[in-house]
Amino acid sequence: MMEKIENPVAEAVVSWRSAEEGGRRSGPPTAPVYAATAVFVHGDDRELQPGWPASADQLSILLEETAVREDGSRVCKVDFLVRDLAVPHLIPGGEILVMEGPRVVASALVSAVYATG
């Protein structure tokens, strides 16, 4: 198990969906570094790609929580197993959907990008 993201590619504010919204039944993950798949939100993908986001190209994402905000969202360090594929899509204010299988369990709003392509 990975304990820490030493050199994150970005930082994001992550909002975990409740079980009622289709999110994790156990709530936000408690592992030091959470690994899942992710989809970058681009414009009108939802309208153009049948079955989106489950049918979209997915990357393996790593999240390490660094703070909990008053609204319950989490500030997280972000990295990807194949960083070079993710960096071109990372922009401040960009949205990433965190997936577990075909389900969206969280959305992440990129607040800072530390690596460039």
Short description:
The protein has about 120 residues and is mainly β. Helix content is about 5%, strand content about 40%.
What does this entry look like structurally?
The chain has two helices and six strands, in the order E-E-H-E-E-H-E-E. It has helices at residues 45-48, 83-86; strands spanning 10-16, 34-40, 59-68, 74-80, 95-100, 103-113. Strands 1-4-3-2-5-6 form a six-stranded antiparallel beta barrel. The mean pLDDT is 88.
* Order of H and E elements: EEHEEHEE
Number of strands: 6
Helix fraction by DSSP (H/I, runs of at least 4): under 10%
Q: Order of strands across the biggest sheet? A: 1-4-3-2-5-6
Number of helices: 2
Show unreliable segments.
none
Strand content range: 35-45%
The mean pLDDT is 88
Shape: globular
What Rg is obtained from the alpha carbons, in whole angstroms? 13 Å
Strand pairing plus helix content: what structural class? mainly beta
State the separation between the terminal residues, measured CA to CA: 28 Å
Largest sheet: 6 strands, antiparallel, barrel
